[in-house]
């Protein structure tokens, strides 16, 4: 998929430019990256909204070979091989790549900054930390909250997020913004992680039922 090539190039550039120093220098660097992404989306505002909302009215122009940009729309977009590519191939792939890059940058910005409590340990002394994407934990938290599994539902969502932060040493302070991004997913299920959990648990059950001692 072309968007993966674009993402690979963007990530390579990110790694090359990342400052060695931590703290404020790294924080400024991340904000510059986010500004670059938002600026690109703003620069191509009409087409980004077309992509983001899942519109199809102009697909015959953007995704059929031989199309031509009209006016200034798309004037600064690299020209790809017209015998192989369409007008929308590069730009829409770039949209997908930059959305993923934004997730990566936001995730890297959410380095645990909790104090006063160490990571959770099992009875055997094994340290437990959330090492998956923070979006996955946020999906799980919303599921637990909306299914009213804690305190008979008499609990605030923020309380659940606070406890998960402390338990797994991860910063979820932007959970509302990240959930907004989850709701806007287009190329994957909006409940990707919960769907994957259901799939693997069902597989475990089926594998167990199939076992004959």
Describe, in short, the structure shown.
This protein is mainly alpha-helical and 213 residues long. The protein contains 9 helices and 2 strands.
Backbone CA Rg: 22 Å
Number of domains: 2
Mean pLDDT: 79
Q: Work out the helicity level.
A: 55-70%
- Can you tell me the overall shape? globular
Report on the structure:
This protein is an all-alpha fold. The protein has 2 domains: 2-109, no CATH class; 120-182 and 189-210, no CATH class. The chain has 9 helices and 2 strands; from the N terminus they run αααααββαααα. The protein has helices spanning 2-17, 24-43, 45-53, 59-62, 87-109, 134-146, 157-168, 175-183, 192-210, and strands at 120-121, 127-128. Helix 2 packs antiparallel against helix 5. The longest helix is centred in the middle third of the chain and has 23 residues, at 87-109. Mean pLDDT is 79; it is low at 111-116.
Keywords summarizing the entry:
single chain; 213 residues; mainly alpha; two-stranded antiparallel ribbon; 2 strands
């Amino acid at each position: 998929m072309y968007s993966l090539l674009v993402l690979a190039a963007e990530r390579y550039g990110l790694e090359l430019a990342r400052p060695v120093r931590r703290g404020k220098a790294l924080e400024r660097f991340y904000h510059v990256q986010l500004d670059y992404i938002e600026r690109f989306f703003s620069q191509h505002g009409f087409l980004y909204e077309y992509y983001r909302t899942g519109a199809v009215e102009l697909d015959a122009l953007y995704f059929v070979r031989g199309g031509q940009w009209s006016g200034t729309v798309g004037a600064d977009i690299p020209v790809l091989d017209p015998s192989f590519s369409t007008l929308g191939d590069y730009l829409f792939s770039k949209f997908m790549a930059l959305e993923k890059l934004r997730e990566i940058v936001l995730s890297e910005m959410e380095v645990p900054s909790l104090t006063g409590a160490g990571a959770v340990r099992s009875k055997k002394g094994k340290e437990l930390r959330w090492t998956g994407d923070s979006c996955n934990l946020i999906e799980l938290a919303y599921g637990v909250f909306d299914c009213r599994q804690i305190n008979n539902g008499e609990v605030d969502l923020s309380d659940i997020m606070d406890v998960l932060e402390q338990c797994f040493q991860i910063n979820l302070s932007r959970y509302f913004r990240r959930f907004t991004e989850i709701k806007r997913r287009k190329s994957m299920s909006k409940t990707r992680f919960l769907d994957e959990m259901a799939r693997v648990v069902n597989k475990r059950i089926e594998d167990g039922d199939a076992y004959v001692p």
